[in-house]
Amino acid sequence: MQKRFRKRCATFDIDQHVVSKNLDGLFHLLGEEERKIRTDPTARVTDLLKEVFSR
User: How are the residues of the chain apportioned to helix, strand and coil, as percentages rounded to the nearest 5?
Assistant: First the structure.
């Protein structure tokens, strides 16, 4: 049983895992911000956002 565990851990790339989870979190936050901008007109604080999302 211990051999299987070592083999599985040897193929795990911690750097790839961390980068992947960070990107997931980043895109989640971007999605929340976009939802807020689209639904709440007071969240459109710049002229560009007002122009793009008021159409």
Answer: 80, 0, 20
State how far the alpha carbon of 15 is from the alpha carbons of 22, 38, 50, in Å.
Answer: 11, 35, 39
Which residue type does 2 have? Q
pTM of the model: 0.63
* Span 4-30, pLDDT tens digits: 656 566 678 899 999 999 999 999 999
Sign of CA dihedral 35, 36, 38, 39: positive
CA distance 33 to 15: 27
CB 44 within 8 A of CB 54: yes
